[in-house]
Structures are given as structure tokens and as C-alpha cells.
Specification:
alpha+beta, 434 Repressor (Amino-terminal Domain), Umud Fragment, subunit A, 2 domains, about 30% helix, globular
Length: about 230
Amino acid sequence: MITKLSQNLFWLRNNFDKEKISQEEMSKGLGITKPTYARYEKGLNEPKLEDILKMSDVFGMTTDQLLKEDVSIKKPNFENDKLRILASTVNSQNEDNIELVSIKAAAGYRGGFGDINFIETLPVFQVPFLSKDKKYRVFQIEGDSMLPLRSGSMVFAEYIEDWRNIKNGTVCIIVTREEGIVLKSVINFLNDKNLLILKSKNEIYDPYAVMGEEINEIWKFVGFYNNEFPT
């Protein structure tokens, strides 16, 4: 049973959306640790039931298919958006870094958000009081659309994997294909109309819609830093 699962995991990872992805990317998409995933793929550990159920849900397969069948014959449909692969870096203790996306790096991030080689060029740091169970990134915002946050403020944000459960009014960093990085308050119509309404705090800017397929990443606002005292 372990051998068949390990073969299937190896095949799925090497054929995700017709491309090969890393064990780290696959483990994050499945919501399990990289060492645990690696042991499953190598057939060294018997998988936990909860992890098998996660894999079944993400890949859209039954547990019997994952454990007993050759999934390379089935060729699963990776258009299922439950597996969002996040390019990310870790420190020497295998803990997630917090990467900094400056204004200067923002243009490159729009196209390089999923490229681990680009992500590895970003400055990184650790913040001890933030949860180790969540993924954070810092984005430097530009403009006056979210006053009183000033242009140049550093926004700390938490990665959101399941966009459809975002509550209305949540302030988020949204990374889109056209605009790149924006900080907006969200009205969520993804379940009904496959779109978000993005609203600025500064009322001189009108709300606008963005379709689900135009969105690359969403990060939830958790705090900010600015070296100027607010007025």
C-alpha cells in the first residue's frame, strides 16, 4: 500500500499542471510538513488517515485510487483550485521565512510570484511572535488609496489558500495578472459570480471588480510598519 502511494505521489508531483514541482511546494499545497511528505513519497512511513483524506480531497480521487491504483493512467484534472502552490523559502531550521516584496520588486513579483528562483532573491527575516503554523509575507504599498496607511508602508500579510471563504470587508493584498500588487477591502462574490469587488479606504477611488481567473494570490492584512508618525 505504501509503495503504491509513494509511486503515485512521485508521479503527481512530477506532472502537476504538466510541470514538475518541488517536494516543498507539494507539501505546502497539501498542508503537511515537507519532511512528512518526503517520507510518504519515499515509502518510508505509513501515512496518517488525516493526510490520506487531505490528498484525496485535493487531487479529487478516492482513497482507494491513491493507495491501490496507478494514477498515471487516470491522469487527474489539475484545474481543481484546491492545490495552490506557493513559492516560498525556509531558514536553516526549515522554518518559513518572511519575504519582503519592496516597491522596487513589485513589478517582478507580478510575473515571478510562482518562480522559486525569483522568490529566493527577496530579502527575508523572522518575526518570533508570529504563528509558525501560518505563512507570512511583507509587501511595501504605494499610493494613497488605503489612507491612513501611507505610501511606503510595510504591510504584514498572511497567505490565504481558500479564497472562497474570505469574509466581506477583509483587507487583503491581492496579486493580479494586470495590476500586480494592490491592498484593498474585499467583497467576496467568488462562489456566485467568480469575482471580487475591491474597495479603497480613500473614497476618491471607485470600487472595481476583478475576476477569479485574474487573481494569482491573496494575502490577509495582519499589520503594518511605517517609520513616520501618523498625522
